[in-house]
Amino acid sequence: MKRDDALLNAFIQTPPAEDVPPDLVDDMLDASRPPKRYRTLWISDLHLGTPGCQAKALLDFLKHTECETLFLVGDIIDGWQLRRQWYWPQAHNDVVQKLLRKARKGTRVIFIPGNHDEFARRYLQLDFGGVHVAEDWIHETADGRKLWVIHGDLFDGVIQCAKWLAYVGDSLYEFTLKLNRHLNSMRARMGLPYWSLSKYLKLKVKRAVNYVGDFENAVAREAGKRGLQGVICGHIHHAEMRDIDGILYANDGDWVESLTALAEHADGTLEIIQWADEMKSATSVRKSQTTTAGEVMNEDESATVSTV
Fold this sequence. Notes:
This protein is of the alpha/beta class. The protein has helices at 2-12, 24-27, 55-63, 79-84, 90-104, 157-161, 163-189, 197-204, 206-225, 275-307, and strands at residues 36-43, 65-72, 108-111, 127-128, 131-133, 137-140, 146-149, 230-233, 240-244, 247-251, 260-264, 270-274.
């Protein structure tokens, strides 16, 4: 219980303003990468507190996006993993501080706990440091659609009926991620691109594919029963947006492997953001600018020599 309270406090307690150093990086974003602006953003399954969390990519996303409302759709902090072994590097703390800073600067931040941060469900309907904790939410898009926002673990039969099996599966998933990191380290040395082992297994193993399909159908069916036009969730680490029997099903993915978010534009249009692609594009632009700057400097030096 005390450990759970400490985890929540680490996430949602705002330090006094004078104790928070100015975020110089935010104030000095290079002009070539202005922040992308959205009406609403949804992110989930960050799994802060685990080695698998892609905290640097997540920080890049938070620094280069702005929105009116930010939904944290569960499994933000991985309480299961932290109970087994404490892991909290500076980058994870930076993510928390960045989220809190967004709340202080006027972004409405809504935290919907999942199964890995279920300890936060004891604080439903409370506000901490500008972060509102809720069991679920009905979001109305700019074009008038009403969407149910949930984490999704309540529709997972393993979580509800055999939680011990979920713990076993979580440990196996962590092992897969660890193996995946080693494999991709070797691939990087060979000049090969990133490849996700667990994503490959999910798509190839029939039971995993059936599980994903059953989950998607179940949450969409429940949204329809509630008279809503769609549902937005996380939990299964599989970004997706499609129509299921007239109901919009949208999953914002995760920040362990896919590095995805769901975004609503000013007109109500929804889009899955593949942030890994955004980072690659930004890197290419930066390299191009560096090359161009170098060429300009060389030309200036040549002109100076000619003049002399």
